[in-house]
Give the backbone structure.
Amino acid sequence: VGDFDRDEGPGAPVLAEPAPASAAAPALAPALLTFAGGAAGSRLAPARAGSRLAPAQVLRLQRAAGNRAVTKLIVARDDQHKDTHLPTADELAKINVQVNPTAPTAKGGVEKQWDGASGQPDFNNQRAALKAELSEALKNHLDGKLPWLKKQEAAPKLPLANFEGPGRAAKRAVDARYGAYTSAAALTAPVVHDRSVFAFKAGVHLKDRANPAHFTPDPADVADWMAQTDVFAREAQKRHGFNKDRSADEQTFLNDQVIKPFVAARKHDLELYDIYGFAQSSPGQIWISTALASKGAAVAGGPPPPAERWLYWSTWETLVHEYIHTLEHPAFIAMRGGNRILFEGFCEMFTEEVLLEWIPIAKGDKNAALRGEVEGKDGSGNLWPNFEEKMVPAYNPGEYADYVKRAKEIRNILGSGGENAVRAAFFQGHIELIGLRSTGKIASAPTTSAPSGMRFHQVVSDPSNGGKIETADQIATQNGVSVVELQSANPGVDLNALKAGDNVLIPVKP
Ligand SMILES: [Zn+2]
């Protein structure tokens, strides 16, 4: 329980009627990309300038764009790890504060202990107090959502296929920004396959949470999410120095004293919340709700009602976040366990990057391909009339605001290479670049430094499905060098016999 991604789904459209305050914040939104190469059929795989192209792609590009463009793409590789470094002792202490909510806030400080831990003064009363505070927070949270959830349950459901376009649009925007990082990552064949066929096909990759054949609600997981995400629940845990990711004792207390009794008392309401309140993803699949609870009748032959158009845009934004989850590297997954600061904070940080680029384009109605894909088109293939800016929800991290703040702080702590470090960690499994061990705990400061003009690259493996080690080609691509340059910086090293954790040297280009 608790190791899965789950995210708030779209709330009530702001343009149709005021949403209940507690249900207002949609999780996020994505954006769309222009069609880089004209006709869809001629598009290359997502590739930034400098990323590696397969020979067939190079040939295609030569025909389409001439040799000069090809030379530029192949030679001028981006250094995806530019300015990254193994964090220093000082940076590690600061990162620990962001990753671990009970960490000491000053270097050399003492970690705050749970006041309900056995042996602490008055620990039984502190346990009872924390139990009461958390139970109250969960009850208030769910009670606040319930009217909206019942409305969703009674509402008509839109066809799932209507959301394929918003999904494809979300995918394109995400791939354009991060595709070079994900395609240079060490991944096992099943993961590569899942990703290569992922197309937001309704019933295959895109699933309906209200359809029992697609989805089974998990009340305990919803309650666990609430306990970690609700702001009052989080404050109560902070006051008591409680951290469920720290010890089995704390995890057991949360499960047995708080989650289980709450689930027993509110099972049906939690199921409703799970179905209508969240979106969710796993490798190769994403689940959404298609309920449209707002009023507004469609005119025959005319555009969908504004609330329906709002739902498509809102879901597009949610699907950017969900799709990014499917790109999380298995080594990052194994490291972070159920720590939502890491997986939701990082996922939402990248979501924000994409959406801040694309929401203004959507609101300004500056990209017809995007709008047609998200809203659909009339019977003649034309865009629907009467688009309004307010049909596209503003960016809002919702309940993840604190997680995102922490993720961004980690990025800031790491200086000019911070953006590359967080991308390398999340999409490629290079967790050492954000100062974390495979256990999710903070690393020790590095004791050696690379020779002048060089930096270390620690070899990563995808631990799933029996494992897959980074190849020389992947290492070279990630670091913006050729395999020849990589080999000459590491004379005598067999680049085909590397193991996870090995260090190789990278020549750093000015
Ligand atoms: Zn999420």
About this structure: The CA atoms of residues 304 and 472 lie 52 Å apart. The pocket of zinc ion is lined by residues 5, 7, 321, 325, 344, 347 (CB under 6 Å). The beta strands are 7-8, 206-208, 278-282, 285-288, 454-458, 461-462, 468-469, 503-507.
